[in-house]
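Course assignment 3, question 2. Fill in each field.
Student: A.L.
Task: Predict the tertiary structure for the chain below.
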Amino acid sequence: LPEDMVSFCAAGKMTYLDLLPGIQSANGGYRSCYYALDPHWNTFGSRVVADYILKNVEWYKKAAGKPSDNK
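Answer field:
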């Protein structure tokens, strides 16, 4: 699936960030990011993904052609 998303986004000139590595690196394992009986992220999972996105903001800006915050 990630390969399909990469191709799809590239064709549409969209930036793609795979969130799975962030979920997989969560303390307590990836299952700790989900509700027990629901496939959606719980509060902890949302925080894990938000932190992962923040760590990749510079990557996103570069991919999107936006100026970096780093001087």
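Instructor remarks: The chain has four helices and no strands. The CA atoms of residues 13 and 64 lie 9 Å apart.
Grade: pending
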